[in-house]
């Protein structure tokens, strides 16, 4: 057994991990001839959604697979924000502010400043069987790098 496992590849990191890794490499490269380098993480001003309506864990209460119907879900939660007929699933999505990272590097001759936002995209996903009864329901954090449809199909197939 190898006592020194290989470092994770960029593709295996989550999107914010790849962004952070790229940013750190850029800052490290800029740091070599520089006299001043810094990163300032700034927490979000608010945890309120910037888009959509947050579906809390209580939204899952009362949803029973094989019993609860789509009509009951929509009566309780309102119309869905997205529907995927291929996977017979619906989504209630929302987006929240995340941390903002400010990075800079400066020398006597030049300077670079950049900003990266780590916002969060979330959803309550619900899939249905052929009789429009809930098959499964779950709150998930979505990837910024893949379409909602692709993520719904993959989630429903699990």
Q: How would you characterize this protein structure?
A:
- With 158 residues, this protein is of the alpha+beta class.
- The N terminus is likely disordered.
- The protein has one domain.
- Strands 1, 2, 3, 4, 5 and 6 form a 6-stranded antiparallel β-sheet that branches.
- The protein has 3 helices and 6 strands; from the N terminus they run H-E-E-H-E-E-E-E-H.
- Strand 4 and strand 5 form a beta hairpin.
- It is elongated, with a radius of gyration of 21 Å.
Helix-strand category? alpha+beta
Biggest β-sheet, characterized?
A: 6 strands, antiparallel
Given the structure, what is the number of helices? 3
Poorly predicted spans:
1-10
Fold topology:
Layout (H helix, E strand, L loop, with lengths): L14 H17 L4 E7 L6 E4 L17 H8 L4 E3 L4 E18 L4 E18 L5 E9 L5 H10 L1
Antiparallel strand pairs: 1-4, 2-4, 3-4, 4-5, 5-6
